[in-house]
Amino acid sequence: MKTKNLNTGIAIITATLSLVLFNNFAFVSWNLQDQALENVHEASRVAHAKELLGKSYRGSMAQRLEGKKSLNQMIQVKVKNSLAPKFKAQSGSIARTVIAESKKYKLDPVFVLAVIKTESKFNPLAVGSAGEIGLMQIKPDTAEWIAKKFKLPWNGKKTLENPSANIRIGLAYMNYLRSSFKGRAVTYVSAYNMGPKNVRRLLSKNVTPAEYNNRVMKNYGELYAKISAPTAVLVAAN
Fold first, then answer.
1. CA distance linking residue 183 with residue 175, whole number of Å
2. Structural domain tally of the chain?
């Protein structure tokens, strides 16, 4: 009888603990998924858009979205829609990283999405022909150098398979190139693809590389058009 009562007591305690753990886990999971997005830093976005577009900024979709408070939600919707099904659960953390790191380096987060689309088509596990890895297609040796320079976590090339870590390292590199080429967009964007030495070599011959920059800017314009469409706004609002 005592044994039966003891077993019953243990069963009750086990069930209670399981329920508590389940509820806590559910709360933590819900809390992470529902974590609020940081607002896009509007001044930085506008300033960088003007740097990228020059005179073409006037009348552009980038200008038309000035002051749009839901731009952060639009970015998350675009990220989620661009990811393969197995990665969609990470759309929130990816969007938060894009927005936060863009603010840190005074970049337009839509430009960041354009680079990601150009490099990997939003595939976190993409591997390039020269060994580039992840969303922003970074070579492990370049990533290790940047991680050390900017004091970012580095645990070998597998670090680049983590979308958020990949974006942080990629944008630190973009920031480095931007400062190296004194904010001249066509040069630092090109350098992200072909390396700063190759860009400087071409510039010394009075040749300005533009092919990669043109692809990024094409995606930049298309992304702005898509995220500002009425249907995108409606989805973001919900």
1. 9
2. 2
Contact present, 173 and 138 (Cβ < 8 Å): yes
**How many residues are recorded in the chain?**
238
In terms of domains, do 139 and 84 share one?
Answer: yes
Compute φ and ψ for 26, nearest 5 degrees: -65, -40
- 206 shares its domain with 174: yes
Integer angstrom CA distances of residue 204 from 152, 164, 199, 207: 33, 36, 9, 7
Same domain, 160 and 48: yes
The domain in which residue 190 lies consists of: 38-237
136-195 confidence digits (pLDDT tens): 999 999 999 999 999 999 999 999 999 999 999 999 999 999 999 999 999 999 999 999
Which one-letter amino acid corresponds to residue 21? L
Residue 200 · residue 42 · CB < 8 Å? no
